[in-house]
Amino acid sequence: MPLSISLIVNGEQKDIALEDPRATLLDVLRDRIGLTGTKKGCDRGQCGACTVLIDGRRINSCLSLAASQDGAEITTIEGLAAGDDLHPVQAAFIETDGFQCGYCTPGQIMSALGLIREGIADDDPERIREAMSGNICRCAAYQGITEAVIKANARMRDTQESQS
Amino acid sequence: MNLFEYLRPASLDEAIAAARAPGATYLAGGTNLLDLMKIGVQTPRTIIDISRLPGLDRIERLADGATRVGAMVRNADLARDADFAANYPAVAEALLSGASAQLRNAASLGGNLMQQTRCSYFQDPHSACNRREPGSGCAALDGETRNHAVIGWSDQCIATHPSDFCVPLAALGAVVEVAGPGGTRDLPIAQLHMLPDATSPGGTTLAPGEMITGLRLPPEAAAFRDNARYLKLRERTSFAFAVVSVAAMLRMEGDVIAEARLALGGVAAQPWRRAEAEAVLAGAKPGDDAIAAAAEALMAGARPSGDNAHKITLAKRLIQKALHLAAAGTPAVMPALPASVFTSEPAERGEPADV
Question: Which residues form the 2Fe-2S ferredoxin-type domain (chain A) (predicted)?
């Protein structure tokens, strides 16, 4: 008997019949809902490419059964920009060259947003690097990523968007 | 991943009843279980999702001064709880030194205690492993042993318990609350993880169908809040398991140690705590001689299980460093790199800021 789950993804309700309970949240986002911005890297919680926000908290969507998230509010990379207006974290990544090939970038951006909302980023590069260690960048854009977090944090603090 | 039946019971009683099914297992945060299922090391036939069971997500200060933490409290939430972190700073530091921010947001207290060893031979279904397949042997004995035990091991198994969190919990004498088909019981954390012996590879002492529902830190555990550290040596500064780690906590009276708590991670199949080592420090001043004697006492009986004799030296040095830092006082703020011996801030090294 298929499991029926309901997710709020980027503000939109999605009712999904799961024929197979093995589906992870990552699989459902990509293959059932068609949101392929969230990437499958290692699929074992080690690389961070699959990072999304669940009820505002960053987690690895590859290590969560979709069935466990029934009723949850999910934010993916597709849910950040307002039309053509980039989210402050997206804009900061572009301005600081916080990527090269771009494969890890959706996960980096979602992780950075989660970190800023946790309110522990300060502007200390060492704390930011530690807090971002769950996101691996094969191109090693770490310097730009750290700068992007500092920049976005400052901007969101100024505009109080971190409260939204 | 094998196919399984997914159940999400509404109550603890329902969950425990469901766990009678053969091959049933509890699912909490999923960060360890799903990973092991993906590589075929665990193959449960029924998954009982306990992540939403009511009443398991609270942190409470009890009337007698003890603290109770529910099994579904996530690692990050416990470490960032201001009251908890102030009273048990080494526990918070240990939690924040483990895994990544994403994993700490998902991983639960109960799951951390029940997590499997990270022995690479346990994780490889093609290797002999007495833990995974009793009687098949231990491929680690002649293998790569950097992350393996140097104390309390046997030829049955040389794996270590990988938890950071459990190390200060053991030092503080935490009590694990267990529920199962036979009712509820309290279990001292020292009795949760069994060492291997001549015939058994070790593991946990929970019976089939039993579940951890919470954990209590006894009233006296908060008395170590002013002199507590957790230090961890690892292959990289973040997101790596311990090669060796130490929880060191002191209750000072003036310049004398009234009581000491000391436990090691990364060296045995359980957090390694020995009363003799703590007794060496009680009544002493935290000087080099007493601290070195405590390190020797804690490591008494250590022997390499392979090419890992260096871990014995590392452990003794790290115990001494952690005790000196604990004596200097708990850092006023959580270090930028929790549990790291590397830091850019002199105060965190126990040095005055103007050095």
Answer: 3-80
pLDDT tens across A52-72, in order? 999 999 999 999 999 999 999
CA distance B277 to B300: 9
Residue B50: closest C-alpha in chain A: A68
Q: How far is A135 from chain B (nearest CA, A)?
A: 8
Nearest beta carbon to residue B102 from set A43, A68, A134 = A134
Q: Are strands B46-49 and B24-27 parallel, antiparallel or unpaired?
A: parallel
How many A/B residue pairs have CB atoms within 8 Å? 92
Q: What would the pLDDT profile of B255-273 be if each residue is shown by its tens digit? A: 999 999 999 999 999 999 9
H-helix or E-strand spanning residue B105: helix B101-106
Whether A51 has its CB under 8 Å from any CB of chain B: the answer is: yes
Which structure tokens are listed for B276?
């003799």
The beta strands (E) that lie in B14-58 are given as: 24-27, 46-49
pLDDT of residue A74: 98
| In chain B, ranges of CATH 3.30.390.50 domains | 226-349
pLDDT at position B307 is 97
Q: At residue B204, what is the residue type?
A: T
Residues of chain B found within 8 Å of residue A59, distances taken between Cβ atoms: 102, 105-106
Q: Which residues of A touch B51 (CB under 8 A)?
A: 68
The CATH number for B226-349, chosen from 3.30.390.50, 3.90.1150.10, 1.20.1090.10, 2.60.40.2470, is 3.30.390.50
Three-state SS letters, A94-129: HHCCCCCCCCCHHHHHHHHHHHHHHCCCCCCHHHHH
* Average pLDDT for chain A: 95
pLDDT at B243: 97
> What pLDDT score was predicted for residue B347?
55
Backbone angles phi, psi at A97, to 5 degrees: 60, 50
